[in-house]
TrEMBL record:
Chief site of localization: membrane
Listed GO CC annotations: membrane
Compositional bias of kind Basic and acidic residues: 681-694
Name the UniProt record assigns to this protein: DNA-binding protein
Membrane topology of the entry: Multi-pass membrane protein
Lineage: Bacteria, Bacillati, Actinomycetota, Actinomycetes, Kitasatosporales
The organism of origin for this protein: Streptomyces echinoruber
Location of this chain's protein in the cell: Membrane
Amino acid sequence: MGDRLFEGLRSSVVSKLTDVPKRILIGRALRSDRLGETLLPKRIALPVFASDPLSSVAYAPGEVLLVLSIAGVSAYHFSPWIALAVVVLMFTVVASYRQNVHAYPSGGGDYEVATTNLGPKAGLTVASALLVDYVLTVAVSISSGIENLGSAIPFVVEHKVACAVAVILLLTLMNLRGVKESGKLFAIPTYVFVSGVFIMIAWGAFRGLVLGDTMRAPTAQYTIRAEHQGLAGFALVFLLLRAFSSGCAALTGVEAISNGVPAFRKPKSKNAATTLAMMGLLAVTMFCGIIVLALTTKVRMAENPATDLLRNGVGVGAGYVQNPVITQVAEAVFGKGSFLFVVLAAATALVLFLAANTAYNGFPVLGSILAQDRYLPRQLHTRGDRLAFSNGIVLLAGAATLLTLIYGADSTRLIQLYIVGVFVSFTLSQTGMVRHWNRHLATERDPGRRRHMLRSRAINTFGAFLTGLVLVVVLVTKFTHGAWVALLGMCIFYVTMTAIRRHYDSVAEELAAPESASDDIVRPSRVHSVVLVSKIHRPALRALAYAKLLRSDTLEALTVNVDAAETRALREEWERRGIDVPLKVLDSPYREITRPVIEYVKRLRKESPRDAVSVIIPEYVVGHWYEHLLHNQSALRLKGRLLFTPGVMVTSVPYQLASSEAAKRRARREWSAPGSVRRGPAVERPKESSDSRA
């Protein structure tokens, strides 16, 4: 415990020394009353909360074609029907979540809906699923972006893990600056990407339908070696369901808007619902457009391109880099190396990096709500200096970095873990909304409101049925391909949060103030005060003077004999000065200081259990971090051990050394100290007192 106290003290001093670079990196601290300035208009909220589903069109079409390639090129003609199924699902989910944001605008999203209507266990299941999905969103999006960028810059491919971790750190830093500032940074590339995709779809349609041009992707002349040629019956149905589940990656991040309603400007629910509709329309249009252009330009994709992608009947080899579908389509429509091709390729890579921002906004908010409900550590509930949930942001970055390192920043492996969590939350959330409307319909008598509720219930009922069906499909088709890892992660989160809640509940029960008299409120019979001294100096004399002021029943000074000569000198000076406090010397044959003091205090408690022991420790106050390494170590260890001793009160008597003036001057600076936001707005001091102090 003493070591932890020392580490905490040293960390606080080091944080002061590093405050200047911190301010440069994340900006000046913001007062709590400036929270309204960080709220988002719809034009900024769209890239902040919808960058994940919008950017998923860069890899979701490719995932569909990759799965279909198992049966060969002939299976590609099923892709429009799969795209249509994804579109129906997207519109259903968007319509369902528009009901959520109106009914539950507090920001709890799926977690609040499930907890309120289905119970705490269902809510905790949803929370576990969302936390896993947010971590995977960061890992998958950044890994995919690195692979897109690597097709143009070989260095990135050669060091993709290091580059992915660097991007995670950069995104973390940007989000620590605050939601609004990060949103401004992310808006431009997101809108450039969306505009580029729409221009590509429009120009491709114009060239094909009006000009009659023949557009061909760079892989159009390749063929695919099918792993299972001529699939039929159940095997074909299973393949199509697996392709559909891969295409459902386009829906990830839809729930983030319902979790982030508090970040919108007023009217919050209306703005969030409008943003949801805009996101759904844009994502569906881009997804379908890319699928159609991929078929038109004859894009070829293979799960194992080195052996399954054939050029003139021969495998392309291990050195071949399989570009994403969107890159191949852009090359066919705009021409390789053209200005629009370069802009879209760059915007695609960048927006995939920024897609992780959806998780950076969803995870900390959900973590704060869970911390408020005592399912996660309380530190996740507080806002940082920039009014962002800094601890949640850092936790998300750490988990995503660990996952990226384990899977080597390989998006193909990571994406198999994807989608499971989000469809668990979709299904339970929509089921909870059905129960929500049932509860309100039981008491509502107004015909107009009842019609609105019945329509909303029908939407949520269909959403629950469809997302539940998709969840079953995803589990069946992806379980052995990595979905089990996501389920394991959900179980770990669930068990951990349950244990944290149990701990907080037991602590609250133990600390609850009793209604009747107890040992905690009954006055002790007597108080024994013990002043620890090592030599006679100013701190020791101040501690003795303070101890006399307490007027304890008994007072004694205590020292430990680790050096006979020093102890003898202390006794002689004690007697020479005529100090009227008895000095007790504890022998320590093994030259320990902490153990003899602890044993002596315990012995006092054992002899008089109804008495309290007050241990008074003189301490130096220094101003430089390195001075903390040279002073107060024995005091810190003693305090740490004494905290575990019942009936013992520990008091520190500080003595300020000259160097502490430097720390005092730093504390008087105008800029806010770290953590000032957590302590609330600073109260301005009267000008007269400030002048007199100067």
